[in-house]
Amino acid sequence: MNMNKIGVIGTGFVGMAAAYSLFQQKLANEIVLVDKNEGRARGEALDLMHGQPLVGRCEVSAGDYSSLKGAGIIVICAGVGQSSPDESRLELLQRNIKVFESIAKELDHHAPEAMLLIASNPVDILTHAMQNLSQRPNNLVIGTGTLLDTSRFRTLLSSHYHVSPQSVHAYILGEHGDSEIPVWSSAHVAGLGIRGNTINGVDYNSQALAEIASQVKTAAYDIIANKGYTNWAIGLVIANIIRTVRNNQRAVLPVTVRLNGEYGIEDVCLSLPTIIGSDGVESTITPTLDDDELAGIQTSASTLKASMAKLV
Ligand code: NAD
To answer: Buried-most residue among 8, 189, 214, 219 (CB within 10 A)?
Structure first.
């Protein structure tokens, strides 16, 4: 298994933003692009690989599943859109799970040891499905989860407090979607809790903070209403997770993992702060939550379980 060889399945907006970030940040020396639209993957590979003299050597090629042999990490960004305006979300999900069934079979055959990073939506349900479909252990199947939402949250809080986003420590946990939870109880800047305190001259304003959490929740809808899709930040999220795995950084990232009793929840995948290293998921961290946050995580879990129960 070669951590310098990374596969990307689905070379649409998200897959190519991820590949571009990996290329630009020198996080691979081989990137293999796989798409059911072979021409698209071939064109993208040629386009990107021509940047090598400007960035550094990184072989970019288009291939089929057999070309993923030996890859250390494979990102799954394949997505099927609505087949007709009256197709329900559930029908669409069932079709996406069928796609995942065939991808799991191919990957277990050609790259059984690779870590799989799922970005396709609904990411929590598809991560759970891939864990069930693939023979590999669950610690090697992770979803991008709420790392994107957390990044959006820290960005908006940083503008509010006029400090760098990297100096704002705050998580969005739970479902990557409508039931996600902003964890205010542990959010802080330099150890000073965001709740109730004046930070950098900005007084505590619960209404403004609630508005920030609401903007995080609707960010994808807002971006899609304007440009039709989201891709750049999720591409950077994917690169960030891959850097953490490749360099065995053991960073704590809010990503989609299977819960095994945390907060009394099991048999569902959602985002918790998770230590990520070269073996994928090492363990989860369960911060003390206030009653509303705990209830929020439990609602996220039951929302996801209710969606999965409808699948046939
Ligand atoms: P897109 O339509 O631009 O690209 C999807 C690609 O998947 C296409 O190139 C298509 O040919 C390919 N594909 C479909 N079925 C395939 C299969 N069986 N094998 C290989 N390739 C296949 O879509 P996009 O904007 O790139 O979004 C991709 C997915 O990422 C969607 O599910 C989207 O909802 C999701 N997404 C997730 C996040 C997140 O935070 N996790 C953020 C943005 C988008």
So the answer is: 8
Tokens of 23: 């290329």
- Domains of the chain (ranges; CATH) run 2-143 (3.40.50.720), 147-309 (3.90.110.10)
Which atom in ligand 1 lies closest to the alpha carbon of residue 176? 40
Q: How many whole angstroms separate alpha carbon 306 and alpha carbon 5?
A: 37
Return the percent helix, strand and coil in the chain, to nearest 5.
45, 20, 30
- pLDDT tens per residue across span 86-125: 777 778 899 899 999 999 999 999 999 999 999 999 999 9
32: three-class secondary structure by DSSP: strand
Q: Is the pTM of this model over 0.85?
A: yes
Tell me, using a 6 A CB cutoff, whether residue 109 lines ligand 1: no
Q: Dihedral, CA atoms, 223, 304, 89, 18, nearest 10 degrees?
A: 40
At which residue do the structure tokens 């079709």 appear?
A: 95
Atom number in ligand 1 closest to CA 123: 41
The set of catalytic residues is 176
- The DSSP annotation for 165-194 comes to GGGEE--EEB-SSTT-EE-GGG-EETTEES
Confidence of residue 275 (pLDDT cuts 50, 70, 90): very high
- Torsion angle, CA of 242/247/248/250, rounded to 10 degrees? -70
